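Possible regression after last week's pipeline update?

I re-ran a chain I had predicted before the update to compare outputs. Posting the input and the new output here so someone can diff against the archived version. Not blocking, just want to make sure nothing changed silently.
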Amino acid sequence: DLLVLKKGSIADLIKAATQAQRGEHINNPKVLYTQANRIKVHSPDKLMINLDGEYGGDAPMEFENIYHCLELFVPEQQEDAL
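New output (post-update):
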C-alpha cells in the first residue's frame, strides 16, 4: 500500500491521521492511495523523503516490496504466562 498526503495544512494532516485510524482516509481528497510492488520517487525540485516519520534521504529514490522477506520465530505462549 502506498499513501501520499498532498500538500495542505496541519489541520489536513490531523484530519487524515484521524481518518486513517478509522480506515476512512481512502475517501479523503488530500490522500492518494494505490498499491504497488515497486515505485520510484523523483522531483524536479529537492524533495526530502520521510520514512515512517524519519528523514530517509532525498529523491530520487526507489522502493521495492520484498514479499516474505522477514521470518519471525515466536515461542509458544504458556498458560501460566497469561
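Follow-up from reviewer: compared with the archived run. Residues 1-35 form one domain. Marking as no regression found.
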